[in-house]
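Its record is retained below.
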Amino acid sequence: MADNVENICPQCSSLLSWKDHGYFCDFCQQQVEKHVFCPDCNEQLERLQACGSASYFCNHCNELKSKSRVKVQFEMRAETR
């Protein structure tokens, strides 16, 4: 679910909520995707979930990355009709 990061809508700066297994902006009425990047090489990280805690792994650096160091970016999910 949500991490201890400010989950802010990239479009309107409102706080995001957690709905239907994803982030959602109640103000914009849109789903929002969370992307996490390596602080060292800027490659997108893989999320590892185990025993109730989340970690991040960088395939480029081939090492675990601390959740407190990762770069988080939110992006409006493209509408599919």
Notes: Residues 11 and 38 are 23 Å apart (CA to CA).
